[in-house]
Fold these 3 entries.
Entry 1:
Amino acid sequence: MPKSRVPQWTEQEIALLCELYPNMRTREVSERIGRPYLATRRKAGQLALRKTDDYMLRHPHEFQPGHKVPRERLTNPPKPIGTEIFRHGCVMRKVNLTGDHSADWKYVHRIVWEEAHGPIPPGYRVVFKNWNTTDSRLENLELVTAAENSRRAGQRYGAFPKELRQALFALGRLKTKIAEKS
């Protein structure tokens, strides 16, 4: 069994959390228990602990609807433009700071293709000639129809058992339908 990087909560810590959390600020509870603030909040949520009505009257909720948390207080601040991450099997790059994930992040291979050839027409896919999805060099990219892309995928997955191939194709069709509705 792999070792956990974070020590498990003891029964004494959980009992103390259950006792203190409803009537004390979470930061103070975390300091008393000796756990990080976010770990304390997470554990309280897992245990469905809530602040008492009396506590809420004494400490009005800090964040009202529409309140914006200053960036320096965010525990996970937004990544700067130009940041690259590996998601959904490909490298993505942050191109905007709108807060809308689909508008802020673009696949690097699509960026490279569009810079060289302009917008990708509807019904076409930019694919990797060598199947290495981290290799976004222009000479490794080509534009194919969705049908051709499916045919190639069928050849690639041809070695799999029939049931698995059918499941993979069904998953692909489902992802396409979801993407069309988004």
Note: Residues 106 and 113 are 12 Å apart (CA to CA).
Entry 2:
Amino acid sequence: MRADRILPRDPPTRSRKLLIAPTGAQGGILGRFVYDGNNRVEIEDRTLAHLQMTIGAKLRRGEAFFFTWKDDVSVGKGRTTVWMHAGASLVFTFHGSRTPAINRAWLEALMYTANSPAGLYLVPEPAESATDKLVVE
């Protein structure tokens, strides 16, 4: 067989679990974040909703940035970093049908990391006050 007839194989899809869970997480329902079809990570739905809002806000402003997460020990306990940009294919899949409550203080903390040179990474959820709750319908 000639070399020019050999088609390149699709890169393997990597499925990961996120190591860091939000403070107070009680084994919440896992959704999934997929980056460019190759990197998949399972993330608790409430955490995923906060990440989606943070990532969406950055990309709407045309700002590219790194997003780093720690992998679960079951998949090697490594670290994955992706370059978030407007041309990337991003999929946020939620297991639950209801939109979780949004903590404004957590969004601000996530945005603070996203604006840093290191880029976005998950930080523990700060305690929220009555004024920090954001209702999303």
Note: The chain has one domain: 14-19+29-124.
Entry 3:
Amino acid sequence: MQKQYVASVLFFFLWVVSNGLYGQQKNVNIDVVKSQYIYLLTNQRDSLDAENKNEEYFILQRGKDRSQFMSLNSYKRDSVTSGLINSSVRTTLSLDLTNIPKTNFTYRIIKEPGKNKIDYYDKIIKMDFAYEESPEFKWVISNEKKNIGDLKCQAATLTYGGRNYKAWFTNDIPVSDGPYKFYGLPGLIVELEDDRNHYKFELLSYKNFADEQPLWISEKRINGKKVSKADFYKGLKNSQENLIQEMAKSGFKLDAGTEGLVKDKLKKRNNPIELIP
């Protein structure tokens, strides 16, 4: 019960300060969705606790020139949040937080492989930030092959962000894309895992769209402060180390016992996907 309470306190604080209660949230269409892929991420948030794994679903939407990768719950949360903020609801006491999907990953990743460009959008406490990256994915394709479901797959390896990955891609889906920031192989990445078994993405389903649905991102995100990748992760680290103080500044007072539990929970969030940003 204590763990659930602490998680709820953190979620409520981060949701309120990052979204506010009076602003308008609009969406910006950046492309049209031609195909969509659902992945399951299994990850270990605490590098010292191999028994405690988390799961979350992610969605990859591909357009004509761009693709977007994000947590499925984060995607739903933006939609729900937009509806709540633009409704007549104006007090925290009136909000039904059960309607807001919880997520451990609030980022949006917009990929433009034709330009070798990635735009990364995320929040640090109450501010939206964005940075641009042009990664050099040096894939090494091997002769190792296996079937994953009905898909014929081939192995490839890559070192990125301080982790060594093994990917299984398929030419059966000739799409040069995959989970997180990754792209550049001859086919879609069906499975990807680092050699520490801390992060594993698995493709669950995919479909093409005959009708053109908008590929969108919230205006609030896209207008976030532009910074360098190094400055973003420096700010993120600083915010995590000073979250209790930030909560106090925003009027969230915690008793000594709850504060200790929150600090303990934060210490266990020590295993980001990029160990070396």
Note: Residues 5-23, 88-95 have pLDDT under 50 and may be disordered.
